[in-house]
Design goal:
With 440 residues, the chain is an alpha+beta fold. It is 36% helix and 21% strand.
Length: 440
Amino acid sequence: MFWQFLASLAALLIALYAVAWWFVLRFGRRVSPSPDSGPIDVRDAIEYARRALAEPGPQHEDLARLWAPSSASDVEVLPEGRVFYPRMLEDIKGAHHSVHVMQYGFQPGIIGDQFAPLFAEKVRDGVAVRLVVDSLGSHAYTGSRAMFNSLAEAGVETMLHDLFPPDRRGPVGTRRLTARLRQTGRVEHRKLILVDGAVAYMGGAGLEDHFFDGRFHDVYIRFTGPVTRQLQAIFLATFAYHGGRLPDGDGVLEGYFPPITTEGPHAVNVIMNWPRGWLPLTDAALDLIRTAERRLDIMNYYIGDSRVIRDILDAAGRGVRVRLVIADQGHANGVTYGAFLHHYDALLAAGVEIWEYPAVVHAKVIVSDDRVLVGTLNLDAFALYRNPEMGLRFEDAVVADRFVSTLFEPDIAMSTPGRAASGRLRRARNRVFAQGNYFY
Protein backbone atom coordinates (compact mmCIF):
# COMPACT_ATOMS: atom_id res chain seq x y z
CA MET A 1 0.00 0.00 0.00
CA PHE A 2 2.83 2.37 0.92
CA TRP A 3 4.63 1.76 -2.34
CA GLN A 4 1.43 2.28 -4.30
CA PHE A 5 1.00 5.63 -2.55
CA LEU A 6 4.55 6.65 -3.43
CA ALA A 7 4.04 5.57 -7.04
CA SER A 8 0.81 7.58 -7.27
CA LEU A 9 2.46 10.61 -5.68
CA ALA A 10 5.38 10.37 -8.08
CA ALA A 11 3.01 10.10 -11.05
CA LEU A 12 1.10 13.17 -9.85
CA LEU A 13 4.27 15.19 -9.42
CA ILE A 14 5.49 14.18 -12.87
CA ALA A 15 2.13 15.15 -14.37
CA LEU A 16 2.15 18.52 -12.60
CA TYR A 17 5.69 19.16 -13.73
CA ALA A 18 4.78 18.22 -17.31
CA VAL A 19 1.89 20.69 -17.25
CA ALA A 20 4.13 23.44 -15.85
CA TRP A 21 6.80 22.62 -18.41
CA TRP A 22 4.28 22.77 -21.25
CA PHE A 23 3.03 26.13 -19.95
CA VAL A 24 6.52 27.59 -19.85
CA LEU A 25 7.39 26.32 -23.31
CA ARG A 26 4.24 27.27 -25.11
CA PHE A 27 2.03 29.69 -23.23
CA GLY A 28 4.43 31.88 -21.26
CA ARG A 29 4.29 35.66 -21.35
CA ARG A 30 5.59 37.00 -24.62
CA VAL A 31 8.36 39.55 -24.58
CA SER A 32 7.45 43.07 -25.57
CA PRO A 33 10.34 45.32 -26.56
CA SER A 34 11.23 48.19 -24.27
CA PRO A 35 9.78 51.60 -25.18
CA ASP A 36 13.18 52.71 -26.46
CA SER A 37 13.17 49.90 -29.01
CA GLY A 38 14.63 51.49 -32.12
CA PRO A 39 17.49 49.68 -33.83
CA ILE A 40 20.77 50.23 -31.99
CA ASP A 41 23.56 51.61 -34.15
CA VAL A 42 27.21 50.72 -33.55
CA ARG A 43 27.75 54.21 -32.12
CA ASP A 44 24.89 53.71 -29.65
CA ALA A 45 26.08 50.27 -28.51
CA ILE A 46 28.15 51.62 -25.64
CA GLU A 47 25.22 53.57 -24.19
CA TYR A 48 23.00 50.49 -24.40
CA ALA A 49 25.65 48.55 -22.49
CA ARG A 50 25.96 51.35 -19.93
CA ARG A 51 22.23 51.25 -19.19
CA ALA A 52 22.24 47.44 -18.97
CA LEU A 53 25.14 47.42 -16.52
CA ALA A 54 23.62 50.05 -14.24
CA GLU A 55 21.90 48.88 -11.06
CA PRO A 56 19.69 46.91 -10.68
CA GLY A 57 20.57 45.42 -14.08
CA PRO A 58 18.47 44.97 -17.22
CA GLN A 59 14.91 43.76 -17.27
CA HIS A 60 14.18 40.65 -19.30
CA GLU A 61 12.60 42.64 -22.13
CA ASP A 62 15.63 44.96 -22.37
CA LEU A 63 17.49 42.24 -24.26
CA ALA A 64 14.77 42.04 -26.92
CA ARG A 65 16.30 44.67 -29.17
CA LEU A 66 16.81 45.34 -32.86
CA TRP A 67 20.28 46.12 -34.15
CA ALA A 68 20.91 48.52 -37.00
CA PRO A 69 22.74 47.35 -40.14
CA SER A 70 26.49 47.59 -39.78
CA SER A 71 29.62 46.36 -41.52
CA ALA A 72 32.39 43.82 -41.08
CA SER A 73 35.95 43.38 -42.29
CA ASP A 74 38.23 40.40 -42.85
CA VAL A 75 35.43 37.82 -42.91
CA GLU A 76 36.91 34.31 -42.91
CA VAL A 77 34.89 31.11 -43.24
CA LEU A 78 36.49 28.42 -41.06
CA PRO A 79 35.00 24.93 -41.41
CA GLU A 80 35.93 22.18 -38.91
CA GLY A 81 37.19 22.45 -35.35
CA ARG A 82 40.72 21.53 -36.38
CA VAL A 83 40.71 24.82 -38.32
CA PHE A 84 38.83 27.27 -36.09
CA TYR A 85 40.01 26.18 -32.60
CA PRO A 86 43.71 26.97 -33.26
CA ARG A 87 42.73 30.41 -34.61
CA MET A 88 40.62 31.12 -31.53
CA LEU A 89 43.41 30.06 -29.19
CA GLU A 90 45.92 32.18 -31.08
CA ASP A 91 43.73 35.29 -30.83
CA ILE A 92 43.00 34.71 -27.13
CA LYS A 93 46.71 34.30 -26.39
CA GLY A 94 47.26 37.72 -27.95
CA ALA A 95 44.47 39.43 -25.95
CA HIS A 96 45.59 42.44 -23.92
CA HIS A 97 42.29 43.80 -22.55
CA SER A 98 39.37 41.35 -22.49
CA VAL A 99 38.11 37.95 -23.59
CA HIS A 100 34.35 37.44 -23.62
CA VAL A 101 32.83 34.05 -24.42
CA MET A 102 29.19 33.01 -24.79
CA GLN A 103 28.67 29.25 -25.18
CA TYR A 104 26.17 26.45 -24.98
CA GLY A 105 28.78 23.71 -24.56
CA PHE A 106 32.12 24.10 -22.76
CA GLN A 107 33.51 20.92 -21.21
CA PRO A 108 36.84 19.42 -20.14
CA GLY A 109 38.66 17.36 -22.76
CA ILE A 110 41.26 17.83 -25.45
CA ILE A 111 39.72 21.18 -26.41
CA GLY A 112 38.38 22.35 -23.06
CA ASP A 113 41.73 21.61 -21.43
CA GLN A 114 43.38 24.06 -23.83
CA PHE A 115 40.89 26.88 -23.38
CA ALA A 116 40.39 26.72 -19.60
CA PRO A 117 44.08 27.08 -18.60
CA LEU A 118 44.49 29.83 -21.19
CA PHE A 119 41.56 31.75 -19.68
CA ALA A 120 43.19 31.50 -16.25
CA GLU A 121 46.56 32.54 -17.66
CA LYS A 122 45.08 35.64 -19.30
CA VAL A 123 43.53 36.70 -15.98
CA ARG A 124 46.98 36.45 -14.38
CA ASP A 125 48.21 38.70 -17.21
CA GLY A 126 45.63 41.31 -16.25
CA VAL A 127 43.10 40.53 -18.99
CA ALA A 128 39.41 40.45 -18.01
CA VAL A 129 37.92 37.05 -18.90
CA ARG A 130 34.15 36.56 -18.68
CA LEU A 131 32.00 33.61 -19.72
CA VAL A 132 28.26 33.15 -20.18
CA VAL A 133 27.49 29.44 -20.60
CA ASP A 134 24.49 27.18 -20.52
CA SER A 135 24.58 24.92 -17.47
CA LEU A 136 22.89 22.01 -19.25
CA GLY A 137 24.96 22.09 -22.43
CA SER A 138 28.17 22.57 -20.45
CA HIS A 139 27.37 19.97 -17.74
CA ALA A 140 28.13 22.70 -15.23
CA TYR A 141 26.83 20.78 -12.21
CA THR A 142 28.32 17.41 -13.17
CA GLY A 143 31.31 16.70 -15.39
CA SER A 144 32.41 20.33 -15.77
CA ARG A 145 31.84 21.45 -12.19
CA ALA A 146 35.48 21.21 -11.13
CA MET A 147 36.60 23.10 -14.22
CA PHE A 148 34.24 26.02 -13.58
CA ASN A 149 35.14 26.13 -9.89
CA SER A 150 38.81 26.23 -10.82
CA LEU A 151 38.17 29.04 -13.30
CA ALA A 152 36.29 30.98 -10.61
CA GLU A 153 39.25 30.62 -8.24
CA ALA A 154 41.50 31.92 -11.01
CA GLY A 155 39.35 35.05 -11.40
CA VAL A 156 37.34 34.10 -14.48
CA GLU A 157 33.78 35.37 -14.06
CA THR A 158 31.41 32.66 -15.30
CA MET A 159 27.65 33.18 -15.51
CA LEU A 160 25.41 30.13 -15.87
CA HIS A 161 22.07 30.02 -17.65
CA ASP A 162 19.81 27.39 -16.04
CA LEU A 163 17.19 25.42 -17.93
CA PHE A 164 15.62 24.21 -14.69
CA PRO A 165 14.31 26.52 -11.94
CA PRO A 166 15.01 28.42 -9.85
CA ASP A 167 16.97 31.25 -11.45
CA ARG A 168 20.25 32.18 -9.85
CA ARG A 169 22.35 35.32 -10.28
CA GLY A 170 26.00 36.13 -10.02
CA PRO A 171 29.21 34.38 -11.09
CA VAL A 172 30.13 30.82 -10.20
CA GLY A 173 31.26 30.78 -6.59
CA THR A 174 28.91 33.54 -5.41
CA ARG A 175 25.62 32.66 -7.12
CA ARG A 176 22.43 33.39 -5.22
CA LEU A 177 18.83 32.30 -5.69
CA THR A 178 16.20 34.67 -7.04
CA ALA A 179 12.42 34.53 -7.13
CA ARG A 180 12.32 34.87 -10.90
CA LEU A 181 11.78 32.23 -13.59
CA ARG A 182 13.23 34.06 -16.57
CA GLN A 183 15.50 31.24 -17.76
CA THR A 184 13.28 28.22 -17.12
CA GLY A 185 12.41 26.01 -20.06
CA ARG A 186 15.03 27.20 -22.53
CA VAL A 187 18.76 26.94 -23.03
CA GLU A 188 21.36 29.61 -23.79
CA HIS A 189 22.23 28.53 -27.32
CA ARG A 190 24.23 31.53 -28.58
CA LYS A 191 27.92 31.12 -29.40
CA LEU A 192 30.26 34.07 -29.53
CA ILE A 193 33.90 34.83 -28.79
CA LEU A 194 35.14 38.42 -28.56
CA VAL A 195 38.80 39.30 -28.12
CA ASP A 196 39.57 42.86 -27.03
CA GLY A 197 36.21 43.89 -28.44
CA ALA A 198 37.80 43.90 -31.89
CA VAL A 199 38.07 40.30 -33.14
CA ALA A 200 34.96 38.15 -33.15
CA TYR A 201 33.98 34.56 -33.83
CA MET A 202 30.43 33.34 -34.39
CA GLY A 203 29.27 29.86 -35.36
CA GLY A 204 27.53 26.76 -34.11
CA ALA A 205 30.16 24.74 -32.25
CA GLY A 206 30.87 24.45 -28.55
CA LEU A 207 34.30 24.18 -26.96
CA GLU A 208 34.09 20.40 -27.02
CA ASP A 209 36.05 17.48 -28.41
CA HIS A 210 33.42 16.16 -30.83
CA PHE A 211 33.78 19.32 -32.92
CA PHE A 212 37.54 18.75 -33.12
CA ASP A 213 37.80 15.06 -33.95
CA GLY A 214 35.41 15.03 -36.91
CA ARG A 215 32.31 13.58 -35.27
CA PHE A 216 30.52 16.94 -35.54
CA HIS A 217 30.89 19.11 -38.63
CA ASP A 218 30.56 22.84 -37.97
CA VAL A 219 31.77 26.24 -39.06
CA TYR A 220 32.77 29.55 -37.48
CA ILE A 221 33.40 32.88 -39.10
CA ARG A 222 36.17 35.14 -37.87
CA PHE A 223 35.72 38.84 -38.53
CA THR A 224 36.53 42.36 -37.40
CA GLY A 225 34.95 45.75 -38.02
CA PRO A 226 32.29 48.02 -36.51
CA VAL A 227 29.76 45.20 -35.97
CA THR A 228 31.89 43.90 -33.11
CA ARG A 229 30.73 46.87 -31.00
CA GLN A 230 27.14 45.67 -31.20
CA LEU A 231 28.20 42.14 -30.27
CA GLN A 232 30.16 43.49 -27.31
CA ALA A 233 27.03 45.33 -26.14
CA ILE A 234 24.97 42.14 -26.42
CA PHE A 235 27.51 40.20 -24.40
CA LEU A 236 27.75 42.82 -21.65
CA ALA A 237 23.95 43.13 -21.43
CA THR A 238 23.67 39.35 -21.08
CA PHE A 239 26.44 39.36 -18.48
CA ALA A 240 24.54 42.02 -16.51
CA TYR A 241 21.28 40.11 -16.97
CA HIS A 242 22.84 37.24 -15.03
CA GLY A 243 24.05 39.55 -12.26
CA GLY A 244 27.47 40.59 -13.56
CA ARG A 245 29.02 44.02 -13.10
CA LEU A 246 32.13 45.79 -14.38
CA PRO A 247 34.69 47.37 -12.05
CA ASP A 248 33.98 50.96 -11.04
CA GLY A 249 35.94 53.80 -12.56
CA ASP A 250 35.83 56.47 -15.22
CA GLY A 251 36.43 55.15 -18.71
CA VAL A 252 36.17 51.47 -17.72
CA LEU A 253 33.28 50.70 -20.03
CA GLU A 254 34.81 52.62 -22.93
CA GLY A 255 37.80 50.28 -22.83
CA TYR A 256 35.62 47.43 -24.07
CA PHE A 257 34.66 49.34 -27.23
CA PRO A 258 37.61 50.11 -29.48
CA PRO A 259 37.07 53.22 -31.61
CA ILE A 260 35.63 52.83 -35.09
CA THR A 261 38.32 53.75 -37.59
CA THR A 262 36.84 52.66 -40.92
CA GLU A 263 33.70 51.03 -42.21
CA GLY A 264 34.04 47.42 -43.29
CA PRO A 265 33.44 46.31 -46.89
CA HIS A 266 30.81 43.70 -45.98
CA ALA A 267 27.26 44.78 -45.07
CA VAL A 268 25.97 42.80 -42.09
CA ASN A 269 23.16 42.84 -39.55
CA VAL A 270 23.20 41.31 -36.05
CA ILE A 271 19.89 39.53 -35.41
CA MET A 272 18.79 37.87 -32.19
CA ASN A 273 15.87 35.82 -30.88
CA TRP A 274 15.00 36.34 -27.22
CA PRO A 275 12.34 34.39 -25.32
CA ARG A 276 9.50 34.53 -25.24
CA GLY A 277 8.18 35.67 -28.57
CA TRP A 278 10.92 38.02 -29.78
CA LEU A 279 11.82 36.28 -33.05
CA PRO A 280 13.63 38.55 -35.54
CA LEU A 281 16.16 35.80 -36.31
CA THR A 282 13.40 33.31 -37.13
CA ASP A 283 11.79 35.92 -39.37
CA ALA A 284 15.11 36.54 -41.10
CA ALA A 285 15.63 32.84 -41.83
CA LEU A 286 12.14 32.46 -43.24
CA ASP A 287 12.58 35.62 -45.31
CA LEU A 288 15.77 34.31 -46.92
CA ILE A 289 14.01 31.10 -47.91
CA ARG A 290 10.87 32.84 -49.15
CA THR A 291 12.65 35.46 -51.24
CA ALA A 292 15.36 33.32 -52.88
CA GLU A 293 15.33 33.69 -56.66
CA ARG A 294 18.36 31.77 -57.97
CA ARG A 295 19.98 29.62 -55.30
CA LEU A 296 19.13 28.41 -51.84
CA ASP A 297 21.73 26.39 -49.94
CA ILE A 298 20.86 25.26 -46.42
CA MET A 299 23.08 23.41 -43.96
CA ASN A 300 21.43 22.42 -40.69
CA TYR A 301 21.13 19.48 -38.32
CA TYR A 302 17.51 20.06 -37.32
CA ILE A 303 15.15 20.77 -40.22
CA GLY A 304 11.70 19.91 -39.01
CA ASP A 305 9.44 22.92 -38.68
CA SER A 306 6.47 22.57 -41.02
CA ARG A 307 6.63 26.20 -42.14
CA VAL A 308 10.27 25.81 -43.12
CA ILE A 309 9.48 22.67 -45.15
CA ARG A 310 6.62 24.44 -46.96
CA ASP A 311 8.80 27.44 -47.74
CA ILE A 312 11.57 25.21 -49.10
CA LEU A 313 9.05 23.46 -51.34
CA ASP A 314 7.71 26.81 -52.53
CA ALA A 315 11.24 27.97 -53.38
CA ALA A 316 11.83 24.85 -55.47
CA GLY A 317 8.46 25.43 -57.14
CA ARG A 318 9.62 28.93 -58.17
CA GLY A 319 12.56 27.42 -60.00
CA VAL A 320 15.17 28.11 -57.32
CA ARG A 321 17.98 25.58 -57.14
CA VAL A 322 17.67 24.24 -53.61
CA ARG A 323 20.39 22.18 -51.91
CA LEU A 324 20.10 20.84 -48.38
CA VAL A 325 23.15 19.43 -46.58
CA ILE A 326 22.29 17.27 -43.58
CA ALA A 327 23.80 14.40 -41.60
CA ASP A 328 23.52 10.91 -43.02
CA GLN A 329 21.49 8.22 -41.28
CA GLY A 330 24.50 6.89 -39.43
CA HIS A 331 25.14 10.20 -37.71
CA ALA A 332 21.75 11.89 -37.42
CA ASN A 333 19.49 12.21 -34.42
CA GLY A 334 16.87 9.47 -34.70
CA VAL A 335 13.79 11.58 -33.96
CA THR A 336 14.66 14.73 -35.89
CA TYR A 337 16.12 12.76 -38.78
CA GLY A 338 13.02 10.61 -38.94
CA ALA A 339 10.83 13.72 -38.90
CA PHE A 340 12.78 15.17 -41.80
CA LEU A 341 12.76 11.86 -43.68
CA HIS A 342 8.97 12.05 -43.68
CA HIS A 343 9.26 15.00 -46.08
CA TYR A 344 11.79 13.39 -48.45
CA ASP A 345 9.21 12.30 -51.02
CA ALA A 346 7.75 15.79 -51.42
CA LEU A 347 11.15 17.50 -51.38
CA LEU A 348 12.76 15.18 -53.91
CA ALA A 349 9.69 15.33 -56.15
CA ALA A 350 9.93 19.13 -56.12
CA GLY A 351 13.53 18.96 -57.32
CA VAL A 352 15.23 19.71 -54.01
CA GLU A 353 18.75 18.27 -53.81
CA ILE A 354 19.30 16.51 -50.48
CA TRP A 355 22.91 15.73 -49.63
CA GLU A 356 23.79 13.47 -46.71
CA TYR A 357 27.18 14.26 -45.20
CA PRO A 358 29.13 11.50 -43.38
CA ALA A 359 29.18 13.19 -39.95
CA VAL A 360 26.87 15.09 -37.64
CA VAL A 361 26.16 18.27 -39.61
CA HIS A 362 25.93 20.86 -36.86
CA ALA A 363 26.52 24.05 -38.89
CA LYS A 364 23.62 26.49 -39.28
CA VAL A 365 23.97 28.36 -42.56
CA ILE A 366 21.53 29.63 -45.19
CA VAL A 367 22.80 31.06 -48.49
CA SER A 368 20.03 32.77 -50.45
CA ASP A 369 21.21 34.34 -53.71
CA ASP A 370 23.82 36.88 -52.53
CA ARG A 371 22.81 36.82 -48.85
CA VAL A 372 23.97 34.64 -45.97
CA LEU A 373 22.59 33.89 -42.51
CA VAL A 374 25.08 32.19 -40.20
CA GLY A 375 24.95 31.61 -36.46
CA THR A 376 23.18 29.32 -34.00
CA LEU A 377 19.66 28.94 -35.41
CA ASN A 378 18.48 25.39 -35.99
CA LEU A 379 15.33 25.01 -38.05
CA ASP A 380 13.27 23.29 -35.36
CA ALA A 381 10.82 24.48 -32.74
CA PHE A 382 13.26 25.02 -29.87
CA ALA A 383 15.55 27.28 -31.87
CA LEU A 384 12.90 29.01 -33.97
CA TYR A 385 10.54 29.86 -31.11
CA ARG A 386 12.06 29.26 -27.65
CA ASN A 387 15.79 29.64 -27.11
CA PRO A 388 18.05 32.69 -27.13
CA GLU A 389 19.66 32.52 -30.58
CA MET A 390 21.91 34.82 -32.57
CA GLY A 391 23.05 35.18 -36.15
CA LEU A 392 24.65 37.47 -38.69
CA ARG A 393 22.91 38.28 -41.94
CA PHE A 394 25.34 39.36 -44.65
CA GLU A 395 24.04 41.26 -47.66
CA ASP A 396 27.19 40.64 -49.64
CA ALA A 397 27.87 38.53 -52.73
CA VAL A 398 31.54 38.06 -51.79
CA VAL A 399 30.67 36.50 -48.43
CA ALA A 400 27.89 34.40 -49.98
CA ASP A 401 30.23 33.02 -52.64
CA ARG A 402 32.85 32.37 -49.97
CA PHE A 403 30.43 30.17 -48.03
CA VAL A 404 29.51 28.27 -51.18
CA SER A 405 33.09 27.65 -52.29
CA THR A 406 34.57 27.01 -48.82
CA LEU A 407 31.74 25.10 -47.17
CA PHE A 408 28.94 23.89 -49.42
CA GLU A 409 30.81 22.71 -52.52
CA PRO A 410 33.44 20.66 -50.61
CA ASP A 411 30.77 19.16 -48.34
CA ILE A 412 28.49 18.20 -51.22
CA ALA A 413 31.45 16.55 -52.94
CA MET A 414 31.83 14.34 -49.84
CA SER A 415 28.11 13.59 -49.52
CA THR A 416 25.69 11.08 -51.02
CA PRO A 417 22.25 11.88 -52.45
CA GLY A 418 19.38 11.40 -50.02
CA ARG A 419 16.81 8.68 -50.58
CA ALA A 420 13.31 8.43 -49.21
CA ALA A 421 12.66 5.86 -46.47
CA SER A 422 11.20 2.53 -47.54
CA GLY A 423 8.93 0.13 -45.71
CA ARG A 424 5.53 0.79 -44.13
CA LEU A 425 6.72 0.62 -40.53
CA ARG A 426 9.62 3.00 -41.06
CA ARG A 427 7.51 5.48 -43.02
CA ALA A 428 4.78 5.35 -40.37
CA ARG A 429 7.36 5.99 -37.66
CA ASN A 430 8.72 9.01 -39.54
CA ARG A 431 5.19 10.37 -39.93
CA VAL A 432 4.72 10.20 -36.16
CA PHE A 433 8.05 11.93 -35.59
CA ALA A 434 7.09 14.68 -38.03
CA GLN A 435 3.76 15.27 -36.29
CA GLY A 436 5.46 15.47 -32.91
CA ASN A 437 8.35 17.61 -34.05
CA TYR A 438 7.04 20.60 -32.10
CA PHE A 439 8.45 19.02 -28.97
CA TYR A 440 11.90 18.46 -30.38
